[in-house]
Amino acid sequence: MNIELTPFLGGKLKVYQPKKGFRFGIDSVILAYFLKLKPFQKILEVGAGSGIISLIALTRFSRCKIWALEREPIFIECLKKNVLLNNFKERFFIITGDFSLPPFKFESFDVLFSNPPYFEAGRGRESPYEEKNRACREKNLDLEGFIKKTSQLLKNRGNLFLVFTAYRMAELIYLLKKYRLEPKTLRLVHSYPGEEARLVLIRAVKNGGQELRIFPPLYIYQEPKGDYTEEIKNFLFPS
Q1: Which residues are 182's β-sheet partners?
Q2: Residues 117-141, buried b or exposed e (16+ Cβ, 10 A)?
Q3: CATH code for the domain in which residue 183 is found
Q4: Which of 10, 59, 115, 221 has the highest Cβ tally under 10 A?
Q5: Cα separation of 125 and 236, whole Å?
């Protein structure tokens, strides 16, 4: 088989993911802990991959239900197994499709979250695994197209949660505002203290007012080649 089982969160989750190619990373984990979800909201994850963000979210928010949109057959296989293995079949719903042509009506969702591709098409070294290239680079839909589709699918006052590369933060904020998604909370993510930010966590509200709160930075490691920070340990090894 091309997929393997990965116990996670101290065994609280069991996650099938590809043996090689695109495997979930710390960026997905920190987005899962950045989310704020409420019961009875209609919630969509775009480009769910193996589903790690949604799976963590479902453990954190026990009364929520999540729809997951994914196009890659290997990830669809993982998602189906992960739903059953973690007993989420009544709360986690898999939709096969491409976000460039989303199979939903406009203004269908209260919340949308995603870990979208960070790099423009043609940038950086290509992977031998095509699904990894599509996960990391804008192949069918660029950032502007992604933000536009997001705005169309969100209800008025709906929330968007993203983790994205900090190098394109100015472009991201410009496009969010262009499509009426007002940034409301922002947190920069650093590998360790003293290093420049690598990622940004951001929440935007459709047709929200102009008021942005910037949270304290999140550090992954205590120092170069050091141990995880206490905050990250609490994410990865919850009590």
Answers
A1: 205
A2: bbeeeeeeeebeeebbbbbbbbeeb
A3: 3.40.50.150
A4: 115
A5: 30
Between residues 120 and 91, which one has the greater pLDDT? 91
pLDDT of 137 over the 50 cut: no
What does the block give as tokens for 50? 């193996």
Domains in the chain, number: 1
* C-alpha to C-alpha distance for 203 and 219, rounded to whole angstroms: 19
* pLDDT beyond 90 at 133: no
How many Å apart are CA 121 and CA 51, to the nearest integer? 24
Contact 100, 140 (CB under 8 A): yes
Which residue range forms the structural domain that includes residue 175?
Answer: 3-236
What amino acid occupies position 30?
I
9 — pLDDT class (breaks 50, 70, 90): confident
